[in-house]
Amino acid sequence: QCPGIEPLCLDVADWEEAEAAVGAAGPFELLVNNAAVAELQPFLAVTRQALRRSLDVNFEAVLHVSQIVARQMIAQGVPGAIVNVSSQASQRALRDHAVYCSTKSALDMLSKVMAMELGPHKIRVNTVNPTVVMTDMGRINWSDPQKSAAMINRIPLGKFAEVDDVVNSILFLLSDKSAMTTGSSLMVDGGFLVS
């Protein structure tokens, strides 16, 4: 459906595998970092394994893959755009989300630093910060009606996001229609953060 787009299937948390696969691909003009894990545990029960895996995927992989792609963009002398998929959880504390909230908050700040440092190379970097999205992961973590009702009641639009809501926001940030937008976070949260 999308000519010119070739997905790569790899463990982005494996630096050597990512270096080989992403380094051999390209040339790049656009990048979307969308891989994430959500291992939900109460703060007092957070395990080192959950913390390590979340940091590896939600933060370190974004940094590393973005480095590989941005270096190629700079070497080619082409402008580019990077969109990192973050979360409303980067800006609002959620029960049992200590690690997830923290890694997404770190991703927001990483994106701002990337925007500042890559801007002179004509590479824009932004985040989209959705509410719960009805992906497989979203359904697993929010299938309990009691838990989901509490969240939906805090969303003025009264619903969780669909995949297309996020995709359309990403497409906007990748496009020339957002040519003066960098270092920004686009909330796709149905108003959650204003409630």
From TrEMBL:
Pfam families, A to Z: adh_short_C2
Q: Which residues form a coiled coil?
A: none
- Gene Ontology terms describing biological process: glucose metabolic process; xylulose metabolic process
Q: Name one GO molecular function term.
A: L-xylulose reductase (NADPH) activity
Can the keyword Ligase be found in this entry's annotation?
no
The family database entries (SUPFAM superfamilies) matched by this protein are listed as: NAD(P)-binding Rossmann-fold domains (SSF51735)
Keyword list (alphabetical) reads: NADP, Oxidoreductase
Highest taxon in the source lineage: Eukaryota
Q: Which family is annotated? A: Belongs to the short-chain dehydrogenases/reductases (SDR) family.
**Assembly, per entry:** Homotetramer.
Report what the protein is called.
DER reductase
At the highest ranks, the source species' classification is:
Eukaryota, Metazoa, Chordata, Craniata, Vertebrata
